[in-house]
Amino acid sequence: xxxxxxxxxxxxxxxxxxxxxxxxxxxxxxVVDVGPSLHIPYERDLKIWVRRAxxxxxxxxxxxxxxxxxxxxxxxxxxxxxxxxxxxxGMKNTDIDVIGFHGQTIFHRSASDTESRGRSWxxxxxxxxxxxxxxxxxxxxxxxxIAVGGEGAPFAPIYHRARVAAMAELPxxxxxxxxxxxxxxxxxxxxxxxxxxxxxxxxxxxxxxxxEWVDLKTGAAMDQDGELARSGTVNEEVLxxxxxxxxxxxxxxxxxxxxxFKLDPVMKLTPEDGAAxxxxxxxxxxxxxxxxxxEPPGGWIICGGGRHNQAMMDALAxxxxxxxxxxxxxxxxxxxxxxxxxxxxxxxxxxxxPLSYPKTTRVPAPTxxxxxxxxxx
Length: 377
What we know:
alpha/beta; single chain; 2 domains; seven-stranded mixed beta sheet; five-stranded mixed beta sheet; globular
């Protein structure tokens, strides 16, 4: 059980910016040694196909041609990412024990959503990835969780715990780890990094709503370093309205889809004020989430793309009553964390160790997961 395996983790998030790939060696518990990593941006045509697939999935057109096209292109892009990472690292496919392949999410609804049965849909063919790379693959991490009534997300908490446990000096307090991706999700790591006491859930929007606003109003992909938000003023009335969302009052575990929150409340604001208000909304959702925790964390580690937005980091520092640092300040690789996570989860899956827990996804008991694809001999 303590045997260390070398894995490649692959992650492509809901922001559709591209593929993160990372190599790590782990025993699936507290030993985590990170290796080379890279990011490959999505080509414009691939983004278009994925957006069409998302639209079809939301509309219930499961057999739409655009979904099949996107799935094939996603798989090819991940094969190329593995090949590029092996070349960069100077490693061979025989040096890798397993690939953790998350795939591209196009639809996510939890089992507690009253409008539909629980479902989380990630595009990408693990069997083809294993055949083409000649490396064993674990994919479909969320399905077993959802099948027993879990939320199907978030899945990073057990890896966050491992990284906290592996810190040179174990924090003498509870730690809040926030991932600012398309949505924001929170992992509460208790003092001593005890896995069974983990609490995790999606807080609200991360960068997704703000990115959508900036694209709509300026054509840019994001609010670079928070410049647009810093030139605006938070509309407190609109912010209060947005904070009335029923999701924010729902007891966790709970999870979100990137598109669950809308821009309607800010549509009459200037581009600057809208960006400032949406930034404040993300921070306020995270701050309000503390009411669902056993105790307020004594420190916060911010991961994901949102940590590069200084306006967002400033908003979090103002909203949270504890030190707020970036992943890099904690000694982590913030851009690679999610890819590392799925490499870590793939090793746990191979070893039959649980991936999700009652207080992270609402499963009735610690739950194993992942679908194994053996590479050709």
